[in-house]
Specification:
Strand order of the largest sheet: 1-2
Low-confidence stretches: none
Structural class: mainly alpha
Largest sheet: 2 strands, parallel
Mean pLDDT: 84
Shape: globular
Strand content: under 5%
Amino acid sequence: MTAPIFDLTAKLKAKAELTSDDTLALRRVAWPDGVIEPAEAEAIFDLNTSVKGKSRDWVDFFVEAMTAYLVEQQSPKGYVDDAKAAWLMAKIDSDGRVDSLGELELLVKVLESATNVPETLKTYALRQIETIVLTGTGPTRDGGSLDAGSINAAEVKLLRRVVYAQASDGPALVSRAEADMLFRIKDATLAAANAPEWQTLFVQAVGNHLMAHGDYHALSRERATELDTFMNDTRSGVGGFLGRLAGSGVSDGFRSIFGEKPQEVDHDAAVAADRAIIADEQAWLTSRINADQGLDSLEKALLAFIVAEQ
């Protein structure tokens, strides 16, 4: 970290808008090698918070640089650790609001780009997304807008990205917390003139939560670290490799390679089992439908979808 970035960010904080030229100047100072140091991340985030007017080039740079810092620059790559998750939440909370042009996009991009993130960040992200969809106003990074009190097409797109993000409970699975969020948003916007895409997302995502089958489960950060350390051990020799494998504690991850065949799973049976709605899921769905004392149009569409898929 060198003094020029402090000098440049101090100068830019006095401006009303961060232009494309400002962005290029900061990129050259802070990111010539593709690595963002912690002090540089602080400076860039503080600048984004301080200046209200931002060009599209600045927002792209901010999201790209912060995602690289949070997701790519630690071992194992792709796993956001507790310290960086806490840092991100504190920075977003520092001014009491989520900037829809930069911070909101960053939050979603981290969930999309990371293999896994701490549960605290998942919970925080869902809470922030729900709040900004229901109450936020202003432009989004992709040219859409946030409209308080209703769900427009841009907000549907945002919600879809969040619930199907890689670092949520799975890239193709909708969690109970995500389904609860969608029900709360539905209940809060029933009387509004919502985009037609909203009903489609609500029905498909809640239906996914109840009936989807998923084989993918991300490794924990601790497990990924063990495997990463093992694979980066450069000591040579097949014998040495086999010896290290036997005593590494990670051999289970490679067991099938060395002749111990994993127990076969009947995929069709597993899919059918997940498609069936069990007692816990039925109780949850009933409680959500009864929460607003009536069967609304989206709930009717959801039930019709479930019946068609059974």
